[in-house]
Design goal:
Helices cover 76% and strands 0% of the residues. With 343 residues, the chain is an all-alpha fold. It has 13 helices and no strands. The C terminus is likely disordered. Helix 7 runs antiparallel to helix 8 and helix 8 packs parallel to helix 10.
């Protein structure tokens, strides 16, 4: 179990850090196209190549982790990728982080440990081939309900002549993208389960292909939400929906189960809860800091400035870091969201 969790952490770290490095590499590059001159420019950019290889390696490691452990364990742990990205950006990219960011990282870390201790090896469960279309029908039905809700709300908003985006739209787009991200992991796992049960090996690439389509569609929905809505709401709903979908679908469609020991069951449940709370804090820490009482904000900022001063005085720098090597806290999550790639 711990090997699979470590693989998941390495995979999600590669995915998130790789995307940031690719984004930083594209600052001096033209928009990606199939022209030979443009492709050679991307290949010759070391930063972009390193990020691309990290992203691909992360995807391969994630598939390896899914082949070894329940998706109800892997999917929540993958939510810690944002925490790893924050640590990387703080020490390597010199990003300034607030106190809530560190609380979110601590919760995500504690949740991962809880999942590791509470999760247990699953015996080979019997999964019918009919579970795949049944899963697709369930998702389609859920999307039909969400889209109907969205249409009714848009119609009512037009009747009231409201032009700005409402929180309901942000929530629905976030939920839809998160459901698709979670289903992508479940379907990938289903391919490995079919293979273990004696089905043709072709089921593995088929399920992985369907999983890729789910992820791509999820990015489309997330981009639609980010285009007109607030990134905090959309990203938070997507992250939480992805974890919940992975856990529920893994248990209902793949026959995964909670631990038999009461202590392990509580530990696993608390691990899931801590990871979800940690992700929510990391996504919305800037907004939450603004809601704190002014004396508390001043106290937290003064402590943060003292720590930064001590850290700077303890290290001798030959020169200031290049501005291109610094990503501000408010834009870090923006770099990891799909809409930043479409510009």
């Amino acid at each position: 179990m711990w090997e699979s969790i470590c693989l998941t952490l390495m995979a999600t770290a590669g995915n998130n850090i790789g995307k940031v490095l690719q984004k930083k590499g594209t600052v001096i590059l033209p928009p990606l196209s199939f022209k030979l001159k443009v492709i050679s420019a991307y290949i010759s950019n070391k930063l972009w190549i390193v990020g691309f290889l990290m992203d691909i390696s992360g995807a391969i490691l994630m598939l390896r982790a899914l082949s070894q452990a329940p998706v109800s364990v892997i999917q929540p742990v993958s939510g810690c990728g944002l925490a790893i990205l924050c640590i990387f950006s703080h020490f390597y990219l010199k990003e300034v982080m607030n106190a809530l960011d560190w609380v979110g990282i601590a919760l995500a870390g504690a949740g991962t440990i809880g999942v590791g201790f509470g999760g247990e090896e699953q015996n080979g469960s019997i999964v019918s081939l009919f579970h795949l279309p049944l899963l697709g029908f369930s998702v389609a039905l859920l999307f039909a309900l969400l889209d109907t809700w969205l249409r009714i709300y848009k119609r009512r908003r037009q009747d009231q002549e409201l032009m700005h985006s409402e929180v309901i739209e942000e929530i629905i787009f976030g939920l839809e993208s998160g459901i698709l991200f979670g289903m992508a992991s479940v379907i990938s796992k289903m391919g490995f389960v079919f293979s273990e049960q004696g089905f043709s090996k072709i089921m593995v690439p088929i399920c992985i292909s369907i999983s890729i389509c789910c992820s791509a569609t999820g990015f489309v929905y997330q981009t639609r939400g980010l285009k007109h809505g607030r990134a905090i709401v959309v990203s938070t709903c997507a992250a939480v929906a992805s974890i919940v979908t992975g856990v529920l679908a893994g248990m209902l469609a793949l026959g995964e189960h909670m631990p038999t020991s009461p202590v392990a069951r509580v530990t696993l449940s608390l691990g899931w809860l801590f990871i979800i709370l940690g992700v929510i804090l990391l996504v919305s820490s800037t907004r939450l800091m603004a809601l704190l009482p002014r004396p508390m904000r001043r106290h937290l900022r003064s402590n943060l400035e003292k720590n930064q001063t001590l850290r700077r005085s303890g290290s001798v720098r030959a020169k200031d870091p290049s501005p291109s090597a610094v990503i501000q806290a408010s834009t870090l999550h923006h770099l990891t969201t799909p809409h930043a790639w479409l510009r």
